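Field log, afternoon session.

UNIT: design team B
ACTIVITY: writing a sequence onto a fixed backbone
BACKBONE:
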């Protein structure tokens, strides 16, 4: 298995192509999904997307597994994007609300960071390039599709449930990192070799506190618009 060199590659052709593909594919599928929804046939299209993305997810799981055999400290499926990558197609296929909530908050709130500061070598000739971008595409694409075309809208219960799950999961990973020296969720003693937001959060272990608070803030911020809309509707109905 070739060694993977992590470098910050923002604005390089591979990065820009990945972002452009996400935007175009999401726009096209959401546009079509909304048209089908008006006709009452969108669920069939959604199931097709779900099964397609599930197959792609299983491909990435097998691919990451090959790397994990050599470097379990980096490539075990323990990152946020690994967990929500498995959750995303299942959420779309089942419509189970707690999974849709995780897809929304982790997908739009957290996984999009991978498109802003990708921690992967930008070279399409590398197998890991495709694993990274396929995984991140699946998550953000499905999260946006369910929001725009699938009709999902987060409520307060979704927020509280997901914050609780996120906190519990991050706490477990923190202690795993402490015991092993690993850096899953980037809350371990080391930093990514690429330039990321982690670099601005100070030394370990204090930066873990800031990361947890920042994660909570992101959850609240991407929920807040929906709470404002509901509040305005209640006021309008009361008048």
């Amino acid at each position: 298995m070739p060694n993977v060199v992590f470098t910050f590659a923002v604005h390089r052709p591979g990065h820009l192509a990945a972002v452009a593909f996400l935007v175009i594919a999401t726009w096209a599928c959401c546009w079509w999904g909304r048209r089908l929804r008006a006709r009452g046939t969108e669920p069939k299209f959604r199931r097709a997307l779900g099964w397609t993305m599930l197959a792609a997810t299983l491909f990435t799981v097998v691919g990451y597994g090959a790397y994990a055999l050599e470097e379990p400290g980096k490539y075990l499926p323990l990152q946020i994007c690994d967990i929500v990558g498995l959750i995303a197609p299942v959420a779309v296929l089942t419509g189970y609300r707690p999974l849709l909530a995780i897809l929304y908050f982790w997908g739009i709130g957290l996984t999009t960071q991978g498109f802003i500061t990708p921690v992967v070598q930008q070279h399409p000739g590398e197998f890991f390039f495709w694993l990274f971008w396929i995984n991140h595409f699946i998550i953000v694409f499905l999260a946006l599709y369910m929001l725009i075309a699938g009709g999902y809208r987060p409520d307060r219960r979704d927020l509280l449930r997901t914050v609780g799950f996120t906190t519990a999961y991050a706490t477990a990973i923190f202690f795993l990192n402490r015991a092993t020296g690993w850096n899953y969720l980037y809350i371990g003693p080391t930093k990514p070799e690429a330039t990321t937001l982690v670099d601005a959060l100070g030394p370990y272990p204090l930066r873990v506190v800031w990361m947890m608070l920042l994660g909570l803030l992101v959850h609240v911020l991407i929920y807040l618009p929906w709470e404002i809309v509901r509040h305005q509707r209640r006021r309008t109905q009361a008048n």
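LOG NOTE: Residues 37 and 165 are 31 Å apart (CA to CA).
NEXT ACTIVITY: expression trials, pending approval
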